[in-house]
Structure formats: C-alpha cells, structure tokens
Design a protein that fits this description.
alpha/beta; 7-stranded mixed beta sheet; binds zinc ion
Length: 538
C-alpha cells in the first residue's frame, strides 16, 4: 500500500496522512497548518489527489490542527464519510464553524488591505457556512468498536487521553492475502490527567504513526504543577493583580476549571472571580457535560456525588464583548482564562494588551506554543509584542506550566510505545518540531530497537515492500518553489547522512564492511563531491 505524508511532519500542525490500498484512497486527519504565513501557505497548496477520489477521512480528534481543512475538502468535492467519535463530532460542530468564521474575518481584513494597495480580494479558505455543510458527512463510531469500511479494511477507535473524544486509530488492511495493522497515535495524553480516560495501551502493529510534541522533554508532575499554579494565584492576590491564562477552548479550559474548582473547594484560595472568557470554551464546556461517558472514574464519581466539576459560584462565563471588556475594569484580583491558546487570535489578545506591560500581572502558559505564534514569542522571552498595531512591553511575570499539558512527555510516549510487541514495528515519528521528532526517533531506535524515522512533508512511500520503500526521489522533490526544494534537499541530505552513518556503524561492527573496497570507493566519491560543492561556494 501507498502512503503520503501530507502534514504534521517536522511540524506540529497540519496533521494529515494519505493512504491508498488498490484504488481505495483515504486520509487519517485533515488538519490545518498554523503558525505564521510561510507554513499557513500550505493550507492553499494543491493536493496530489482529487478530493472527489477520497472515500473517507478518519479523524483522531477535533483540534483544528487535525480537523481544520475538512470543510475545504468538502468544498472541493469530497463526498465520503468523516469517521470519528461522537464527542469529536460534537466538538467539530462548534470548532469548524468557529474556524470558518475566523477565516471569513481574516479574509475580509486582508481584502481591505488589498484594496488600499490596488490588489484583488482575498477569498476565505472556507466560510462558516462551508463548515456547517461539511458536518453532514460525519459518521460517528463508538470507542472499542470494530467498523468495517470496505473489503479488507477495518478500523477501531481507542482512548487517546488527549481531549474529549480523542482517539488512537487502529487500521487493519488486507493486501495480497496478508493482513497488516497500522496504528495512528493521534495526539496522546499523559497518564492520570483529569476528566478523561488514559490512553489505551495498544500492543500490536506493523506500522505506527507516533506524535512527538514533547518528545524531547519531561513534564513536572501534576501535583507539583498544581502547587505552582496555586503559588502564582496567591502571589497575584497579594498584589491585587490578575492571572491571565491563554488556554485552548477544548480540554485545557475545562481541565483548569476542574483544577481551580478543587483548589477552591479545599479552601486553598480565597473567593476571587474566575472568568472563562471565550464563547468557544463556554460551548465546549457544555459539550463536556453532554458526554459524561468519556469521563474517567474520578470525574464520574464527582458527578454521582452530585458535584458538577465545571461549576463553582466564582466562575463567570462571559459571552458578550461588553462582559469581556468589563473584566479589565474590575480592580480586584482575578483569573482570566481565554482563547486562543497560542494567542494568535481571539479575546486573549485584548487581555494580553491590558496585562503584558503590568509588572504585577501574571501570564501563565499551560499548553503547547507552536513556532511562529504570539504565545511562543512571549514564552521565548520577547521584550515587546505587537498587538493591534501597537508595541506592548512585556513586564508581567511569564510562567510555563508543562504539567497541565494535554500531551504525554518523552517518558509517557516511550512508556506507551513499550507495549508494542512486534520487533519489526516501523515507527513514523510525526506531530513535532523537526529537531524534537529527530531526537525522539533516535531514542526509540536506541532504547526500544524499533525502526523509527521522521518523514518529510509530501514524501511518498510504499509500505511493507522493502525493495521499494521510498518512492523515486524526483517525485518527492518536484513540489514547491525553489526555496522550499532547497531546504527540503538540505534536510534530506542531513537525514541521509545520519542514516548512512548509523547503518555503516552497525555493519562495521557486525560484518567488517569497512574492509570492503567497493564501499570505501563509494564513500570516497561522496566525500569528493562534498568537497567540490564546498569549493564552489567559496
Ligand atoms: Zn490535539
Ligand atoms: Zn495536534
């Protein structure tokens, strides 16, 4: 079977993999690229397949970096099924419409700019209406339920412990009388996070797509993280200041509500207003309440005991812009939880404008900040941030609390991976920044001895056919403008070198290939070519 890596490779956004068995073509995830103009241009790139030829899209979860291009695909003629869990469908209903709305606003803003410089209008990637239309193609599947999609093709969704409705997808493919199993980790949560169940330990697979968002890092424990948050809140209260928390509308916000409610119930913090200032987060919280079957035992227990984990007298859900503006006029201490989680859009930008320059304010990052986003610049220590055409100084206390992450850390990923029994498992490390995926891939290779590597964007391969594992190079390289091909070639070179070195080292110790004259001649030639190139550059 054939595979093409369409996104979420060497970057965290745009997750999408194209799979083909005979004439059957389908996608796993159909995510939007996010984090600056250069990478977002990929959202407009022409795919190598016709959307009308796709039979279905298997969707791991509702986050836009996995689902965000579905309306665009439907707009372009996709008429198959989008298969996902019920909670994912419920969340997509609000998130895709919201995304369509944002696309419209951004296109409008760009068009106004274009007009002033005499250029043509910019069309939105898709509209809220397109998003609405795309919903009719969704089909839901329960966790742990085997669904046959076509002759010789079965799937099953399992808990991924990342956000409500998130899933690991198992795919069984029969080809040439042999059954092979592919597994997509989707985004994988850590063990023991609140509200939803832990990731399901899958043991069988021939090929695995593994996320690597935090593949190079260890999180602090949840208890330590909650203690840190408590300290920050108390410090802010002592200075009558505010704590601003940019949070993804789905899961991180509910996780925070849950945690703050617990702190309040235990009387560890005094009664101060907690604002949930994101209409999307408010709708998402309603969806949580509608899907209690996704909850873990602890949360189910709270509900059974008559306690609503998402309600507390101090929590103020602010729907309107007026209510949102009033938050910063209130002189009292308070906690503001607002979206977007990476500060690139939404109401959080207004709160940052109000608080970044105040030395007594606290800005707390609890989720992943992708390269190129406003959030990432603040975390990386920018002295000023441009918001609404104004330079704002960063004087507030900036904190990053990894322990609230919806993604497993390196230890969690390796632990989940250690359940796989097949020594010939092929691991494709994806959904991570390039260097992070590379690090994780190397560790997997060293510690678990699985074959692991990091595919390139738009790379095509044949699976389970060792003699033609990689498709001819020119097919991979013939895409994109020259600069992109140049950087892609450089990456290929780097990757090729590392792979070659590893293989040569292994062979040298096993078979004494260093004495082989043919090998030496080949290596000398490569060396010569490199020296020549270097000379030409001087
Ligand atoms: Zn996610
Ligand atoms: Zn993701």
């Amino acid at each position: 079977m054939k595979v093409e890596f369409l996104g979420g490779v060497r970057t965290v956004t745009g997750s999408a993999t194209l799979l083909q068995k005979d004439s059957l073509l389908w996608l796993v995830d159909c995510g939007m690229f996010q984090g600056g103009r250069a990478i977002e241009e990929r959202n407009q790139s022409v795919p190598s397949y016709r959307p009308t030829d796709l039979s279905f899209i298997l969707l791991t979860h509702a986050h836009l970096d996995h689902s965000g291009l579905i309306p665009k695909l439907v707009k372009e003629g996709f008429r198959g099924k989008v298969v996902c869990t019920k909670a994912t469908f419920d969340l997509c209903e609000i998130m895709l419409k919201d995304s369509g709305h944002i696309q419209e606003i951004e296109a409008e803003w760009q068009s106004r700019k274009n007009k002033r410089s005499g250029r043509e209008d910019t069309a939105p990637l898709y509209t809220a209406e397109d998003a609405e239309k795309s919903l009719r193609y969704f089909q839901t599947v329960g966790y742990d339920e085997i669904l046959s999609l076509s002759d010789g093709l079965k799937i099953r969704f399992q808990d991924a412990g990342h956000i409500l409705g998130s899933a690991i997808i198992e795919i069984w493919v029969e080809e040439g009388g042999q059954e092979k199993k592919l597994v997509f980790s989707g985004d994988l949560g850590g063990l023991g996070q609140p509200i939803i169940r832990d990731p399901f330990p899958v043991a069988e697979a021939d090929a695995l797509w593994l996320e690597s968002t935090y593949g190079d890092r260890l999180h602090k424990s949840r208890e330590e993280t909650v203690q840190e948050l408590l300290k920050i809140i108390l410090e802010a209260i002592s200075k009558q200041a505010k704590v601003v928390i940019p949070a993804f509308a789905v899961e991180r916000t509910q996780d925070l509500i849950y945690t703050i409610s617990q702190l309040r119930r235990k009387d560890l913090i005094p009664s101060i207003p907690v604002y949930i200032d994101s209409p999307l987060a408010i709708s998402a919280t309603e969806i949580f309440k509608k899907n209690p079957d996704c909850f873990d035992e602890e949360t189910k227990g709270l509900l059974l005991g008559g306690k609503d984990p998402f309600e507390l007298p101090e929590i103020k859900y602010t729907q309107t812009t007026e209510e949102s503006k009033a938050i910063n006029e209130d002189p009292r201490s308070g906690i503001i939880i607002s979206a977007s989680g990476m500060c690139d859009s939404g109401r959080i930008q207004h709160h940052l404008k109000h608080h970044l320059w105040r030395s007594e304010s606290h800005i707390v990052f609890i989720g992943y900040q992708a390269e190129g986003t406003v959030g990432r610049r603040i975390v990386d220590g920018a002295k000023t941030i441009r918001l609404f055409g104004e330079e704002i100084a960063v004087r507030a206390h900036v904190h990053t609390l990894g322990g609230f992450s919806a993604h497993a850390d390196q230890k969690g990923l390796l632990e989940w991976l250690s359940h796989f029994k097949n020594p010939n498992l092929q691991v494709f490390v994806n959904h991570g920044e390039e260097k992070v995926s590379m690090i994780l891939s190397e560790i997997i290779h060293q510690e678990l001895k699985f074959e692991a590597d990091v595919p390139q964007w738009r790379e095509k391969r044949f699976l389970f056919a060792p003699e033609q594992k990689v498709m001819p190079e020119e097919k991979i390289e013939a895409v994109g403008p020259p600069e992109e091909r140049f950087s892609s070639l450089l990456k290929n070179l780097e990757r090729g070198y590392k792979k070659l070195r590893r293989k040569l080292k292994m062979r040298r110790s096993k078979r004494g290939d260093h004495r082989d004259a043919e090998w030496l001649k080949d290596l000398e030639e490569v060396n010569k070519k490199l020296e020549e190139l270097e000379e030409r550059l001087q």
